[in-house]
Amino acid sequence: MSRKILIANWKSNPESLKKAQELFKSTALISKKYKKFDVVVCPPSPFLLLKNLLKIKSIKLGAQDVGENTEGAFTGKYTSGMLASLGADYVIIGHSENRALGEGNQSVSIKINLTLKSKLIPVLCIGEKVRDDNGDYLSFIKSEILESLADVSKTNIKNIIIAYEPIWAVGKGATRVATSEEFTEIKIFIRKVLSDAYGSSIAEAVHVIYGGSVNSQNALSFMKDGDAFGLLVGRDSLNAKKLEEILKVIN
Ligand code: PGA
After folding, report:
1. Is the pLDDT of residue 2 over 70?
2. Is 165 annotated as catalytic?
3. How does DSSP classify residue 89?
4. How many whole angstroms separate alpha carbon 206 and alpha carbon 194?
5. Which residues have any ligand 1 atom within 6 Å of their CB?
6. How many CB atoms lie within 10 A of CB 26?
7. Under 8 Å between Cβ of 61 and 90
8. Is 95 in the active site?
9. Helix (H, G, I), strand (E, B), or coil: what is residue 62?
10. Number of the ligand 1 atom closest to the C-alpha atom of 233
């Protein structure tokens, strides 16, 4: 994990196999031009196999979620081992859209552990719903981190990426975009929480990225002023031109 990353979270898009193929191909072409970054495409699970089928080498593959189980009688679920065998490198875990549907920190923790066992990199999403003036959002984030890592052994913590995605800045319903100062504040806070729990060398080794309404206007501020290890991009990853604009400015 040395190159900085740009994670494209396609969420539940696009609607057809044909469109997914087109988006894979155009994203792959663009990422060839920006070798400083690992571009990680996280398509919906039915399209994960496309990277292999289309013989695409220039992007990394990620999943948007994983089951809490290993192989067995779990209808509708898929395992981290299956993702690994498809050539995935990353798994987004605990995205706020899944947490809104009831996913809790305990489930997130189980998924992170299984993902690590399959030698994939978990991208743990954390973030508060609202920013209050008395700092309650910090205690919320602290418990989100510690509870999400409860099952993870100390030696494995450094193999996790933490994505700070404030819920108020994510998706179409975003009230505003976070600032690089807000990202920096949380990044320092994340390292403090990790340092108190696991020691400073582990805390420093964990990469922190930003997600939530990232576009070509704000991407550079998070990477440069906020010194983010990378970005998690939703809407603007569905349009190859917009994704290229982001890569161009941060390159
Ligand atoms: P957005 O989504 O870029 O559309 O806000 C980001 C995310 O939810 O990962």
Report:
1. yes
2. yes
3. -
4. 9
5. 9, 165, 170-171, 211-214, 232-235
6. 15
7. yes
8. yes
9. strand
10. 3
41 phi/psi in degrees, rounded to 5: -95, 125
Position 151 confidence tier, pLDDT thresholds 50, 70, 90: confident
- How far CA 53 is from CA of 21, 57, 89, in Å, comes to 10, 11, 17
Whole-angstrom Cα distance, residue 120 to residue 156? 11
| Rounded Cα–Cα distance for residues 74 and 250 (Å) | 42
Other Cβ atoms less than 10 A from the Cβ of 250: the count is 22
Give yes or no for a contact between 120 and 156, defined as CB atoms under 8 angstroms apart: no
- Token pair 């696991």 in the structure block, residue: 198
Residue type, 230: G
Name the active-site residue from 95, 97, 128, 144. 95
Question: Which residue CA neighbors atom 3 of ligand 1 most closely?
Answer: 234
49 Cα to the center of ligand 1, angstroms:
23
Per-residue pLDDT at 1 exceeds 70: no
Q: What is the dihedral sign for C-alpha 11, 15, 17, 18? A: negative
pTM: 0.97
Closest-lying ligand 1 atom to the alpha carbon of residue 213? 5
Of 97, 144, 165, 244, the catalytic one is 165
